[in-house]
Amino acid sequence: MTTENNDTLFPKGNKLPNDWFSGEAFLTALIARDKNNEFSAGSVSFDAKARTNWHTHPKGQVLLVTEGQGYYQEKNQPAKIIKKGDVINIPEDVEHWHGASENTNMTHIAITNYKDDLQVTWLQVVTDEEYQSAIASISNK
Fold this sequence. Notes:
The structure is a single chain. The chain contains one helix and twelve strands. It is mainly β and 141 residues long. It has one domain: Jelly Rolls (Sandwich), CATH 2.60.120. The strands form three sheets. Strands 1, 3, 4, 7, 8, 9, 10 and 11 form an eight-stranded antiparallel beta sheet that branches. Strands 2-5 form a two-stranded antiparallel ribbon. A two-stranded antiparallel ribbon has the order 6-12. The radius of gyration is 15 Å and the shape is globular. It comes from Flavobacterium cupreum. This is Cupin domain-containing protein. InterPro entries: Cupin_2 (IPR013096), HNL-like_cupin (IPR047263), RmlC-like_jellyroll (IPR014710), RmlC_Cupin_sf (IPR011051).
């Protein structure tokens, strides 16, 4: 008889500031930018309904979903469901947000490139109305 291992891949990490996130989100830093790497990587855990603000990356970002289910949406585009095993390749300077679904937590590894000393530009909050509208647009498909 075998038992399933339900341990998460990385620890939940430190709480992220509500200046950039709505709800409870946490970061475990994995790789910092250094002389060999022009990117950073971290495991970001979102409690249910938690999400980023709208934001952009000057050299793009890759998300590797490792747990749960959530949403990804680019400005003026329909939201998409993202789930464990999905890889999201975000082009440079594309305004977007990502976060957990309304009923499940979601964790992804974010690999974010630098352009000079900048890797993210934080924008406005994703309102509850925008979040609900994203969910509704998926539900109505």
